[in-house]
Write a structure and sequence with these properties.
The protein is an alpha/beta fold. The protein contains nine helices and 14 strands.
């Protein structure tokens, strides 16, 4: 009986959050271990369906780096990276699109729809939703690499996404942008997700990753920073303390917050239903970012 009562208390705790987020758009970057573990994949689909049934409008942006590496090795092409970015020639971008817009995207859509959802897959090429520009090394870093068909976000046209969410669909977006040359460009999924959250007027942006959040000490997962203002986030970026994949994740959160998204979250996607815990409970998990005028 105590266990049943506890479940009821959790549901009651969620009521004010469900009311707050009703009819609001929430953008979710889906990546990391949550995309490869079968139990977590099912849990993610369950969470998306729960949000939809509660009247919330989820928009999903996904990555798929490990799957791309697997396909490249299968066809005898060795993945190459420069400064942490995939060197993407004309053959590689075809493989990237096959994996992201084909295999990975359609699997996510199928997982949601198999539970009774209404997900629909698309890439940034569709309806000119993601306009891409060729990625170049930032000035002053002493590098001048040619990454090939690696892109950055030039602009987002959220019209088709508004149409889909207003008609009750869950858009599932692969991070392929369309360049002015008519070619596809592979863009970091974190950057795409933050840019979409900014352009679509999301109430929240959630980034699922393989760490508990932003850490004060990368060697100590107990040193999590639970809350971070926009000002502090920018100072952390400028400090050079962040490493590897956490940099674009924090960049994406800053992009969203600067555009008026009230809150952005970096949470551990290795935990089942982490997204619901963050959204619908008092404690939450992970790192929450907020605007400097938010009085958080």
């Amino acid at each position: 009986m105590k266990d049943i009562q506890k479940r009821a208390e959790i549901l009651i705790e969620a009521i004010p959050y469900l009311r707050k987020f009703y009819n609001k758009i929430i953008v979710i970057k889906y990546g990391g271990h949550a995309m490869v573990d079968d139990t977590l994949k099912r849990a993610f689909a369950d969470d998306i369906l729960f949000l939809k049934q509660a009247g919330i409008k989820p928009v999903v942006v996904h990555g798929g780096g490990p799957e791309i590496n697997n396909l490249m090795k299968m066809v005898g092409k060795e993945p190459k990276f420069l400064s942490g970015l995939r060197q993407t020639d004309s053959e590689t971008i075809e493989l990237v699109e096959m994996v992201l817009s084909g295999k990975v995207n359609k699997e996510i859509v199928a997982n949601i729809n198999s539970l009774g959802g209404k997900a629909i897959g698309l890439s940034g090429k569709d309806a000119h939703s993601i306009k891409a520009k060729k990625y170049v090394d930032p000035p002053g870093n002493g590098k001048d690499n040619d990454y090939g068909y690696v892109g950055d976000v030039e602009s987002i046209d959220p019209y088709i996404l508004h149409v889909l969410v207003n008609e009750g669909y869950v858009p599932v977006i692969s991070p392929i942008g369309l360049g002015v040359d008519g070619c596809g460009y592979n863009i970091n999924a974190d950057i795409v997700a933050g840019s979409i959250a900014a352009s679509i007027g999301a109430e929240k942006y959630i980034c699922l990753t393989d760490v508990k959040g932003i850490l004060r000490d990368v060697e100590d997962e107990g040193s999590i920073i639970s809350k971070l203002s926009l000002k502090d986030a920018k100072e952390l970026m400028a400090s050079g303390e962040l490493k590897g994949g956490m940099i674009p994740k924090l960049e994406s959160c800053i992009t969203a917050i600067e555009a008026g998204v009230p809150k952005a979250h970096i949470i551990d996607g290795r935990i089942k239903h982490a997204m619901l815990v963050e959204l619908l409970t008092n404690e939450g998990i992970g790192t929450m970012l907020y605007g400097d005028d938010n009085n958080e």
